[in-house]
Amino acid sequence: MTDTFCNPPVVAIVGTGNVATHLCNALGDQVTLHRVDPHSFDGMPDHADIVILSVKDNVIDQVAENIPKVFDIIAHTSGSVSIDILSKYGTDYGVFYPLQTFTKDVPLIYAEIPFLIEGNSQKTQETLFRLAKKISGDVRFADSASRKTLHLASVFACNFSNCLIGIADRILRGKDMDYQILLPLLRQTISKLQHVSPIEAQTGPAVRKDFLVINAHIKMLEQSGHDDWAEIYELITNQIISNEL
Amino acid sequence: MTDTFCNPPVVAIVGTGNVATHLCNALGDQVTLHRVDPHSFDGMPDHADIVILSVKDNVIDQVAENIPKVFDIIAHTSGSVSIDILSKYGTDYGVFYPLQTFTKDVPLIYAEIPFLIEGNSQKTQETLFRLAKKISGDVRFADSASRKTLHLASVFACNFSNCLIGIADRILRGKDMDYQILLPLLRQTISKLQHVSPIEAQTGPAVRKDFLVINAHIKMLEQSGHDDWAEIYELITNQIISNEL
Fold first, then answer.
1. To the nearest whole angstrom, how far is the Cα of B49 from the nearest Cα of chain A?
2. Can you count the helices (H) and strands (E) in chain A?
3. How many CB pairs below 8 A link A and B?
4. How far is CA A229 from CA A163, A171, A207, B99, B158, in A?
5. Is the pLDDT of residue A4 over 80?
6. What percent of chain B has pLDDT over 70?
7. How far apart are the first and last CA of chain B?
8. Residue B182 to residue A153, Cβ atoms within 8 A
9. A221 in reach of chain B (CB within 8 A)
10. Residue A122 burial (C-beta neighbours within 10 Å; 0-12, 13-18, 19+)
11. Would you call B24 an interface residue with chain A, using a CB distance cutoff of 8 Å?
């Protein structure tokens, strides 16, 4: 990886959350790094080449407004907020979006995290790209519309899958088991997708159109008093069946 | 692992599918193994200590009826079929259920696969338990009701998650991306669950009650002409929100 910054850039990461912490861990050795408090702006250097706002979506605007204007480039790390929110606060602005789920104390392989980069100019875009390349092997340009699409897709794939594993957990607790027994199966479910697409990888009663099992499952859910789970079961089963048509 | 069989047991695996193939791979070196055709019964030995029927749920009964009665124990490998289906066909019968998703040519770590064992007598149960122990470090007893519950849970956790990843894939294809970009995030989503429960691990707009993002996502889905995806989005989002109450 060629570093095309002349000197290690001065980077200020603004935020107290998990994303800010992980970005600091990932960048710490490779740039001159300042961690900045998003309320008091304690820690802000006299000058930063790049300021990264790693704060909740709904306060990006406010933090960008109040931050001392001592930077060349300002960027946010949100999947769902447009680049345009920063246009009032700098000449050079962009997005530095790591596609990951960040949890405190859960280690991450930073080199595998896809980074989605956007800049208001080619120069800004390239500078943010080079910064992301210091962390990850998978850095891509994506405009705000593509990034929003990716965010929506990751809600389905990750947030919603996690919710379904939570339902599985609660189903199992009724029989003195829990979701841990499913982890090898879950790892394999994901691992298969390196070889085959989700539609090819689909298994289970729905794709077999095994209505004996499907109806028994729906009955079990209804009898457990969980009509909401029965509704989710039917809807996703119908989705899998319709994919086959 | 102590082997308490006096001699390597003679095991006949009946079936042509992926489960049968993987069981043969996993057991091949450790027992005297015969692979048996479920139609002609070609390959059936003169005597088998254990016959394992690894065939589709809806033909277990028929294959068990027609198989030469030259075995001590007969077992099936289904998650959703009761042990009782085999009661007509042998004195000693049981269930030998590997909790995994088997795909041809996709390698598996057999030692991590949970096996759920049931037998009509303690002796049968223990014999099947010892056989499973030759493959896996995680072997448990489970009655038919528990096994059915586990099967239902794995449909939610694995089959349905795969369907949601398929929806994500189709969303991304509209922007010249595909599900592969989500794989590091998906691996981390599962990996986190070794440390924290699904309810603690939940991230995304629903758990943040970020209705700005939620409503924008639903609008994107509706505008794409996929009311079915919008319906799934709303239902699972409501599930996540209600978990928090």
1. 29
2. 9, 7
3. 319
4. 11, 10, 19, 22, 15
5. no
6. 97
7. 46
8. yes
9. yes
10. exposed
11. no
Select the residue from A140, A159, A218, A232 to test the B interface by mutation, using most B Cβ atoms within 10 A: A159
Query: CB of A52 within 8 A of CB of A131?
Result: no
CB atoms inside a 10 Å sphere around CB A38: 21
The per-residue pLDDT for range B6-61, each reduced to its tens digit, is 678 999 999 999 899 999 999 988 999 999 999 999 999 999 999 999 999 899 99
- CA atoms in the 13 A half-sphere facing the CB of A146: 17
Q: Which two tokens stand for residue A92?
A: 């050079």
Label residue B40 exposed, middle or buried (CB < 10 Å: 0-12, 13-18, 19+).
exposed
pTM (two decimals): 0.87
Query: Whose CA is closest to B78, among B103, B101, B102, B95?
Result: B95
Q: Report B:165-204 residues touching A (Cβ under 8 A).
A: 165-169, 171-172, 174-175, 177, 179-199, 201-204
Which residues of chain B does A158 touch, with a Cβ-Cβ cutoff of 8 Å? Answer: 182, 185-186, 189, 203-204
**CA angle A33–A37–A42, rounded 5-degree value:** 80
Contact partners, residue B155, CB within 8 Å, separation at least 6: A204, A205, A206, A217, A233
What are the C-alpha distances in Å from A97 to residues A15, A81, A89, B114?
Answer: 14, 10, 19, 38
Rounded CA-CA distance A67/B192 in Å is 34
Confidence of residue B108 (pLDDT cuts 50, 70, 90): confident
Helix (H, G, I), strand (E, B) or coil at B129: helix
pLDDT exceeds cutoff 50 at B2: no
